[in-house]
Amino acid sequence: MVDKATPSALSLRLSAPARQDISQVLQWTQHAFGAAGRSRYEALISAALIDLRADPTRTGVRLRDDIGADIYTYHLVSSRKRVATSQRVAQPRHLVVFRVNESAIEVARLLHDAMDFVQHGV
Q1: The domain spanning residue 49 has which CATH number?
Q2: Considering the entire predicted model, what is its pTM?
Q3: Residues 32/25, Cβ–Cβ less than 8 Å
Q4: I need a surface site. Which of 7, 21, 45, 61 has the fewest CB within 10 A?
């Protein structure tokens, strides 16, 4: 993992599949919960990515050797309290799947917590 003394120097890179996942999650959320629900989930995703960039070793990050070498997950619920109370998502169900190298956090996917991660190309 990355040295805790340098996490602010890390950049954040979203893979094409991660960008597509985020878009699909937000579209589904808008369909199911309306524009306000989409706004809440978008704020939560943003908070989680900001949190990971600030500290990729933060509480809630799990090494997932069962998925692949040097793969980590971070459940959005771990950033829930970092969003304004009026914007909180009651039951977030997605995880950020990522790797960390010396200069960047590389987000591979944003997947529902009930998905088979290996099947989804992680």
Answers
A1: 3.30.2310.20
A2: 0.86
A3: no
A4: 7
